[in-house]
Specification:
three-stranded antiparallel beta sheet, 3 helices, 23% helix
Length: 96
């Protein structure tokens, strides 16, 4: 592991990363800058339903690391995860 580098916004004398980005117009952050909050939604890879839940094992709290779709009864480990904005998340909630 190499040495840690001092962030550019500190070297330039700004008090925060946000202030540096506002004044210079740089958007070097790796995260997506969507307006509002973002939510992670699990989707069934077979039917595309968001009605997916974790399958619990015999003992409480001990999961099998599997997911189950309540709509098509699919079970497996490779559930799709989609990141949506606040507006789309609210639309999904209204549809249910």
């Amino acid at each position: 592991m190499g040495k840690l580098a001092t962030p550019e916004w500190i070297l330039k004398g700004y008090k925060s990363k946000e202030e540096f980005e506002r004044k210079t117009g740089n958007k070097n952050s790796g995260s997506s800058n969507k307006s509002g909050k973002t939510y992670k939604v699990k989707k069934c890879p077979k039917c595309g339903s968001t009605n997916v839940s974790v399958v619990l094992g015999q003992e409480e709290g001990r999961g099998k690391s599997e997911w189950e779709c309540k709509k098509c009864k699919w079970t497996g480990k490779d559930v799709e995860e989609k990141e949506v904005g606040e507006e789309e998340f609210m639309k999904m909630g209204e549809e249910k």
